[in-house]
Structures are given as structure tokens and as C-alpha cells.
Write a structure and sequence with these properties.
The chain is α/β, with parallel strands linked by helices. It has helices at about 5-10, 30-40, 45-55, 70-85, 105-115, 125-135, 150-165, 175-190, 210-220, 240-255, 260-270, 275-285, and strands spanning about 15-20, 40-45, 65, 90, 120, 140-145, 165-170, 195-200, 205-210, 225-230. The chain folds into three domains: about 5-125, Tetrapyrrole methylase, N-terminal domain (Cobalt-precorrin-4 Transmethylase, domain 1); about 125-230, Methyltransferase, Cobalt-precorrin-4 Transmethylase, Domain 2, CATH 3.30.950.10; about 240-285. The N and C termini lie far apart (about 70 Å).
Length: about 290
């Protein structure tokens, strides 16, 4: 391990969040293998799957503790008790980065509240991988996970996504992907750019690019595998003259010149300076 890892594991209780492969076993980090080998026990989403993973990594049998949805509260208490008593632990989910669309947040919260250090061995994450490979804007983006299954909550969430001016990452099952893409196309517009990433890092990896309308038709037949959907941002609506004037009045009242006010408002609203500057001059002249 690195000096920091060795010191942390040897000298104080510690919880490690360890990312595990989402498909390709070669993606496991060497430090992840070392942490899993050296901690006192491994907390995990599924003891059977984690046991098989450890065998494939050549780690062999390790003490395992199940921490999953139905026992999460009691299991978190047990992990905290063992850490406070001086043990060290790693937490892994079935695949990917704990806490990113996977369980882990409540465990981290409980351990941190007990004053026990938490560290991370970063690595594979299906949402992050899909966002990166999508080629869609990633300066601002939201992780939505799975949409509500039905009803008003689902309709409201899709309506929010339709209006957002940033990229959105969703998870969906193969059985529902076609219907979900069709609903998104209806709400966001058939021409909204999107990417469907299926079976990332696995043998049959597929990255499909197009519009929501095109992808809804392409995936109507229930494809197999794990799926991540990345939806591009909504096109920014052009501001009205009244909206521009309101912003200009604020800038001018603060003492900005017409030129400076126009530059600030054009940047803020995403409007062309050639459109904003004449309005600024007219307002400045009327006020003088």
C-alpha cells in the first residue's frame, strides 16, 4: 500500500469504500486488491457474489458481512461497533462505486458520525463511464438513477428532466428501456440528443448515439444487459426583450455603463451582444 494506506490501516479504525469491476475484471485497481486482502472484514451487498469476486482476485476467503437494503440499519450499527473496537473494513457493492447509484451512503453517514475515518479506492462506475463515453456536455450534469415506476411522481420527474439545461444520467432495466425512452421523447422532444450505453466494459458493450426518438425506436424490443441512459441538456430558450431589459436595468442602476451592462447581461442570459447593446443604450439614454 501507499504510506497513507498502510498508516491508516495499521494505526486506526477505518472504512474503505472500494470500487469493483462493472464487467471487465481487469479494471480492478491493484490498491483495491490490497485493501480487500488486508482489512479485518469486508462488508458487502451480497456475500455470495463478493465471495466469488474475492476468489477470482486470488484473495481467497475473507470474513464477510452483508449490508443491504433490508438489514441496512442493524448492519450499519454492527459495522460501526467493530470499527470503533479497532477493526478495519472495506465496503463493496455488487459492481461499481459504492454510494454512486449503489448502496453505501447510509453506511458512510453512520461511520462518519461515529468519528471513524472513511477513505476510498476509486474505480469503475457505470454512470461515470457512460457520461464520459457519451460525448455529451459534462460540465454540469445530474445523476437521476432509476425513475419512479409510475404515477404522478414519474410524470413530474420526467417533466423536470425535459426542462433541465444540463446533462442527465439515468438507469433503466432492459424490460422498460423502450417505454422510458418513448416517454422521454414525448416530454423532451424527439430531437433531444441522447446516448444509451449497454453492458459497459463487457464482451457485448454497445454505445448507441442518436436522438431520443431514434433511440426509443431502436430499443423497443427489450435488449439484454445493464443499461445507462445519458440525455443531453435542453436547448436554452432565447430570453425575451423584457427579460433583457430587466437585467439591464439592474446593472445600470448599480452604476454600470451601457457597454459594461450589455456585456454582463449578454453573458448571463446567453443572448447575443449585438441584440443586448442597443437595448442598453436606449435604457441608459432614457434614464439620463
Amino acid at each position: 500500500m501507499t504510506d497513507r494506506s498502510a498508516a491508516a490501516t495499521a494505526e486506526q479504525p477505518l472504512l474503505w469504500l472500494v470500487a469493483t469491476p462493472i464487467g471487465n475484471m481487469a479494471d480492478i485497481a491493484p490498491r483495491a486488491v490490497q485493501v480487500l486482502r488486508e482489512v479485518s472484514f469486508v462488508a458487502c451487498e451480497d456475500t455470495r457474489r463478493t465471495g466469488l469476486l474475492l476468489q477470482r482476485l486470488g484473495i481467497g476467503r475473507r470474513p464477510l458481512l452483508a449490508v443491504r437494503e433490508h438489514n441496512e440499519a442493524a448492519a450499519c450499527e454492527q459495522v460501526v461497533e467493530r470499527l470503533v473496537a479497532g477493526e478495519t473494513a472495506a465496503y463493496v457493492t455488487d459492481a461499481g462505486m459504492p454510494g454512486i447509484s449503489d448502496p453505501g451512503q447510509r453506511l458512510v453517514e453512520a461511520v462518519a458520525a461515529a468519528g471513524v475515518p472513511v477513505s476510498v479506492v476509486p474505480g469503475p462506475s457505470a454512470p461515470i463511464a457512460a457520461l464520459a463515453v457519451s460525448g455529451l456536455p459534462a460540465q454540469r450534469w445530474a445523476m437521476e438513477g432509476f425513475l419512479p415506476r409510475s404515477g404522478d411522481a414519474r410524470a413530474a420527474r420526467i417533466a423536470e428532466i425535459a426542462a433541465w439545461e444540463h446533462t442527465v444520467v439515468l438507469l433503466e432495466s432492459p424490460k422498460r428501456i423502450g417505454a422510458t425512452l418513448a416517454e422521454l421523447a414525448d416530454a423532451c422532444g424527439n430531437d433531444r440528443p441522447a446516448v444509451v450505453a449497454r453492458e459497459l466494459t463487457k464482451l457485448h458493450e454497445e454505445v448507441s448515439r442518436g436522438t431520443l426518438g431514434e433511440l426509443a425506436a431502436r430499443f423497443a424490443d427489450h435488449p439484454k444487459g445493464e443499461i445507462v441512459v445519458v440525455i443531453g441538456p435542453a436547448a436554452r430558450k432565447a430570453p425575451s426583450d423584457d427579460e433583457i431589459r430587466a437585467e439591464l436595468e439592474t446593472e445600470l442602476a448599480a452604476g454600470a455603463s451601457a457597454r459594461d451592462a450589455a456585456a454582463v447581461v449578454a453573458r448571463k442570459l446567453g443572448a447575443g451582444r449585438n441584440r443586448v447593446y442597443p437595448l442598453a443604450v436606449a435604457l441608459a439614454g432614457a434614464a439620463s
